[in-house]
Design brief:
alpha+beta, four-stranded antiparallel sheet, 3 helices
């Protein structure tokens, strides 16, 4: 599973998007059980000067890659997004806000094994799981090396870095 961080097709795409120097930011697992109410529309970015996500959250550009391990159907927690909402400069695009719905939101059903890439400032969430099975996802965040945080962040533990595959290790820069 750790090797997915350096998945060659994704890293190739991210190099086109960011340039050659890519920094790994985070890795998370999410599971939506039947009956899950869904997640309201929100942005993962934080307003300038805020520290709600620590200095790591102060990076101006972050892309999260959402790898879905199960099919997203209209009944099983499909992804939802407000297209182009990351471009808004209006106060309604403040990352502190949450929305139950939006007239321009779209449902994104995908097949297991698919990846959805999102800018950390886009408003997104997921619809309820009204189906009879769970939905699982792996989320990996990256940033371009030039788009660092506003202050120093603790370095990775060298012993932990030594345990990583070499292709993954190159993405764990300070």
């Amino acid at each position: 599973v750790t090797g997915l961080i350096a998945h060659p097709p994704m890293i190739s795409f991210l190099r086109e998007l960011f340039g050659d120097e890519i920094i790994f930011m985070s890795y998370a697992y999410a599971r939506s059980e039947p009956g899950h109410p869904g997640i309201s529309l929100h942005a993962d970015g934080q307003p300038y000067g805020s520290q709600i996500f620590g200095f790591e959250g102060s990076c101006p550009y972050v892309v999260r890659v959402l790898y879905y391990l199960d099919d997203l159907t209209p009944e099983v927690s499909p992804f939802r997004v407000v297209p182009r909402s990351h471009l808004a400069m209006h106060a309604d695009a403040n990352p502190y806000k949450r929305y139950e719905s939006h007239p321009e939101e779209v449902m994104v059903p995908v097949k297991a094994g698919s990846a959805v890439l999102i800018n950390h400032r886009v408003f997104h969430g997921n619809f309820p799981n009204t189906g009879s099975r769970a939905r699982e996802m792996l989320a990996i965040a990256y940033r371009p090396a030039w788009a660092g945080p506003i202050s120093e962040v603790s370095s990775w533990n060298p012993a932990d870095l030594d345990a990583l595959p070499s292709a993954v290790r190159t993405l764990f820069a300070d």
